Write the structure tokens for this entry.
Amino acid sequence: MEDLLVGIDLGTQGVRAVVSDATGTLHGQGHAPLTSHRAGDRHEQDPGQWWTAVGLAVRTALETVKGHRVRGVATCATSGTLVLTDRHLRPRMPALMYDDLRARDHNPLDKIDPAVWTRLGVRPQPSWALARIAWLREHGLGDSLVLHQADFVTGRLAGRPVAADTSHALKSAADPVTRSWPPEVLAALDVPDGALPELVSPGTVLGEVCAAAAEHTGLPTGTPIIAGMTDGCAAQLATGTLDVGGWNSVLGTTLVVKGVTEHRIVDPDGSVYSHLSPDAHWWPGGASSTGAGVLADAFPGADLAELDAKAPLDQALGCVSYPLAGRGERFPFVRPDAEGFMVGQPRDELERYAAILQGVAFVERLCFEHLAALGAPVGPTIRVTGGAVRSAAWTRLRAAVLGRALEVPEVAQPAFGMAVLVAASTSGMTTAEVAREMVRVERVFEPDAEVGKVLEDSYQRLRAELLR
């Protein structure tokens, strides 16, 4: 316990902090809530509230381990959230959250040579931060700084503006290989010199915790501040899915899949994009709009555990569902106009429930088949996280549909992933080596081949309907 690792996770609804040792044992956790303002296309948060919540969460996490040395602290945050500040990190307006849609018509794609995206291996989607930067530019930047959510917090920890990591900046069109802003992008955005932060690789030491931040958070003055990664990448670190061919599937409100390859995976459709890991591997992945969030709308107030027990999850049904949360799809294909549907009529509510759970599993399989078709290796086991793993019945169903063993890690918090990154950054070991020491699997769901055969026709029916 002499060497403690602190990870911070800025989520949409709150800030979480964990304190871990190098064996992966948690010694402290803290949480502080966040509130948002939503109205139509607008989704904003108060950056000052971020900093207040960080102080409360970290102080709570450190409460039981006072006096022990902290080896470092790293922060993950939502991908694509931006805040405009002055040169002293004072916010000049509310933060534009990752799903604020006011900038969707400001994406400067038509001003940039397509060869740039070929070189970068991505194609920015309308919801990416790149469009928000263009929107902010049109509304006047002056001498402001355009920071990602994590940049704001790490800057406050250091007491000065610091560099941005290429992971949080990926959706702003940062080049993770050269750690630079492509000149064609800067020209198209027409942002003033110095408005965007310098770029570094995740795991880089950005500075040290200043005296004011130490007073606010309880972190020792001089604690190294480590450049982090997005919340999705942090979740991957927490699962220990860091070897080539390994994948983490996060089934929460939506479905997010991320894995490890030696070479960057390029998807002409733009549904797959790749982060560059601290180990110089590529982490391709995508985020679907299907997910467990559909259940809240379809079965409000229902006892989902009871539905799990009674629904015919492992049976072929007379209907098949494409359960989409809201409008638009991002992965395994990009269609802003996509809408969910049900083919055939369920006999009752139990069959409708089963069709939705099967439909999510079918989309998950389609995602992995799309990745394999692009050349990404997919190993025999997949680590699974997210709120849906609380349903053992659903997880067994997913294992049968995917035909792979599903492993549930003991700790899957993104904040813990940041602790793993701190350990790697300060030890000289790779993140994969560190993860083998820190990450433990709690439960394994083996695939039931017979159930997989029973559901095969339903999967092919959904696939054919999507193609049609």
In short: The two ends are 58 Å apart (CA to CA). The chain has a mean pLDDT of 94.
